[in-house]
Structure formats: C-alpha cells, structure tokens
UniProtKB/TrEMBL annotation:
Classification lineage: Bacteria, Pseudomonadati, Bacteroidota, Flavobacteriia, Flavobacteriales
Presence of the UniProt keyword Transcription regulation in the record: no
Stretch of the intact protein here: 1 to 339 of 619
Annotated family: Belongs to the DNA mismatch repair MutL/HexB family.
Name the record gives this protein: DNA mismatch repair protein MutL
Keyword annotations from UniProtKB, A to Z: DNA damage, DNA repair, Endonuclease, Hydrolase, Nuclease
Length: 339
C-alpha cells in the first residue's frame, strides 16, 4: 500500500485553527485588544465598521515590532511571550499560543502598521488568506495598528452564519467591557461607523465600572476585599436591593483575565442567599489574584475557562468574603410583604 499521510500546508492549518479561535468579529476584537495590552500600551483605540464585519481595527501606543518580527508575527506558533513549556505555568501575558494573528490572516484581509520607539520609520504589511501581498516602510507613530477587514471573506459558510449587526455589536461590546474592566489603568476608546461609543480615561476599578455602566452604579457597589495565602480578592458586589430579574453584570477576573465559572458564580449566589428577591440576579465585579502556578489557562483556545488546582478552597473563601462584605454594609434580608 502507498503512504497516504501528508502534512497540511500552512494556510490550511491556519484556517483550521481559525475555526477555533475566531468565531465572530468579537473574537478578533478580543485577540487584538489583548495583544495591545501585552505590548504595554497605555492607550488603545478600537475602530469598527458594520459591527466588525467590514472592519475591526485596534491602534495601540505599545512597544511595536521590528520589521522582521512584524512579518514573523503572522506565522503559526510564533510568539514572543513564552519560550518553553514551563513558562505556561507562570504566565503574565494574555497571549502565549502564537495563533491569533496567523489565524486571523488566514480568514480576512489584514493590514499591519507598526514601529518601535528606536526606529525612524515603521513597517506596513498587507496580508490576505495567509498570503503576504506587500511589506514596505511607512511613517507611523510608535506602536501598532492592526486592521482586519472582510472577516471570513474566503469562508462564505462562516460569513453567512454571522448574526445581525446588532447582535454582533453586542458581542463586541461585551468583549470590550471585559478587557476594559480588567485594565482600568489603560485608556480605551471605541468607535463604530465613525461615531464614538466609549471613551474611558485611565482610572481605578471603581471609576472604570461607573464609566462603563453609568453614574448610578456607584451607590450600588459594596466593596469586597480579602487577602489569604492562596487568593486575593478585590472588587465589588451589587447591593441586593438593586438586583434585577435580568442577569446582572457578572464579572470574574483571574489575574487580570476575564473568566467564566459556573462554580464560582455559585459561591456568590450562596453568599447572597436569603438577600435576593425570587429570580433576581446578583451583580459582581471581582478581581481574583492567585499564584499563576495554581491555574491552567491552556484548556481552551479562547482562554475564558481556566482550571484551578483547588477550586473548593477558592469557593469557600469567595463565599465568606462576599458574605462578610454584605454583612458589614448591614443589609437586612428582603421583607416581602406581598407574600
Ligand atoms: P500571542 O499573542 O499568543 O503571542 P499572536 O498571534 O496574537 O500570538 O501574536 C504574535 C506575536 O506578535 C506576539 O507574540 C507579539 O510578539 C507580536 N504582536 C502581536 N500584536 C502586537 C502588538 N499590538 N504590539 C506588539 N507586538 C505584537
Ligand atoms: Mg495574541
């Protein structure tokens, strides 16, 4: 029998990887914003057209890339963030898989402009469907601009699967909120079809929450602070009397990364037990800091689910910290006289 196994060409492998990393314009937003943060930007601008279907562009004032790195950044598994497997257990960056730019360039038209502080001119790369169309010198400020146009132009099935602009924009705003809340010290702005949607100045966590969700939010927040050997918690929960039937704002950040965790969410619900009216949902904005060696972020390509070494302890600490804070603000149980 003849041998039949072949290695897939890079552009095919990239397109397959893209299927996991890029579901919709919001996924591109997340990856580009995270790259800007990893590049130590202090100011990040997000520009969108047609809810990201036509354009997602992120402009940062971070460290930029050299001419060679700029080209190399589109290769699969090309990353400046880890060097060895061990580094996976002490991650300090958002990225580490070296897959995002390669994946995005496989399924969109991408234009990159970047310059490092020490360089006079920057470099400008145009790439589509993994094929580099041009790279030339360009005058551009220090930092990086990545423009992603016509997402899924070469995968009609994927493009048709995208939802209405309103729905896709909602997903983008959710990602934008998550990243902006995780990094209140960074200035973020967002523009859709030429008009400003958000302009968030550098601030602290509380102020960032208020800037995003409105000034009325301020009086609803109860601070939660707890430091133990395994976990530091800082942030806020919403006062129970403001809880609504619609799912409130619920955010966990672990080491500055937004994560979803049904288990930890349950811990919060347990802390609120007896305080919420039937069917109402607690709001929370909680920053958890743990030793990076005690979590595994590499269980899902989008990194929104992580694995904790000792979930049960975290659950117990979280529940008691939130309970304590609610108690300190002397919140009486809801008296439902209608019953
Ligand atoms: P990862 O973030 O996992 O390393 P990416 O494909 O997102 O993989 O990016 C590849 C590399 O390109 C990064 O490791 C980084 O060196 C470089 N890079 C990407 N975006 C930026 C940016 N905005 N500023 C500076 N360097 C960047
Ligand atoms: Mg990245």
């Amino acid at each position: 029998m003849a041998d039949i196994i072949q290695l897939l060409p890079d552009h095919v492998a990239n397109q397959i990887a893209a299927g996991e990393v890029v579901q919709r314009p919001a996924s591109v937003v997340k990856e580009l914003l995270e790259n800007a943060i990893d590049a130590q930007a202090t100011e990040i601008k997000l520009l969108l057209k047609d809810a990201g279907k036509t354009l997602v562009q992120v402009i940062d004032n971070g460290v930029g890339m050299s001419v060679t790195d700029a080209r190399f950044s589109f290769e699969r598994h090309a990353t400046s963030k880890i060097k060895a497997a061990n580094d996976l257990f002490q991650l300090r960056t958002k990225g580490f898989r070296g897959e995002a730019l390669a994946s995005i360039a496989a399924i969109a038209h991408v234009e990159l402009k970047t310059k490092q502080e020490t360089d006079q001119v920057g470099t400008h790369i145009v790439i589509a469907g993994s094929t580099v169309e041009s790279q030339e010198a360009v005058v551009t400020p220090t930092g990086t601009s990545v423009a992603v146009k016509n997402l899924f132009f070469n995968i009609p099935a994927r493009r048709n699967f995208l939802k209405s602009n309103a729905v896709e924009l909602r997903h983008i705003i959710d990602e934008f909120h998550r990243v902006a809340l995780a990094h209140p010290g960074i200035q973020f702005s967002m523009y859709h079809n030429g008009s400003e949607s958000f302009n968030l100045p550098e601030s602290n966590f509380r102020q960032r929450i208020v800037n995003i969700f409105g000034s009325k939010t301020n009086e609803k927040l109860v601070p939660v602070n707890e430091t133990t050997e395994v976990l530091t918690i800082s942030g806020f929960v919403g006062k129970p009397e403001y809880a609504k039937k619609t799912r409130g704002e619920q955010f966990f950040f672990v080491n500055n990364r937004f994560i979803k965790s049904a288990y930890l969410n349950h811990a919060i619900n347990a802390a609120f037990e007896g305080l919420l009216k039937d069917g109402a949902h607690a709001s929370y904005f909680l920053d958890l800091t743990v030793n990076p060696e005690t979590i595994d972020i590499n269980i899902h390509p989008t990194k929104t689910e992580i694995k904790f070494d000792d979930e049960h302890t975290l659950y117990a600490i979280l529940r008691s910290a939130v309970k304590h804070s609610l108690g300190q603000f002397s919140i009486a149980p809801v008296l439902d006289f209608d019953r």
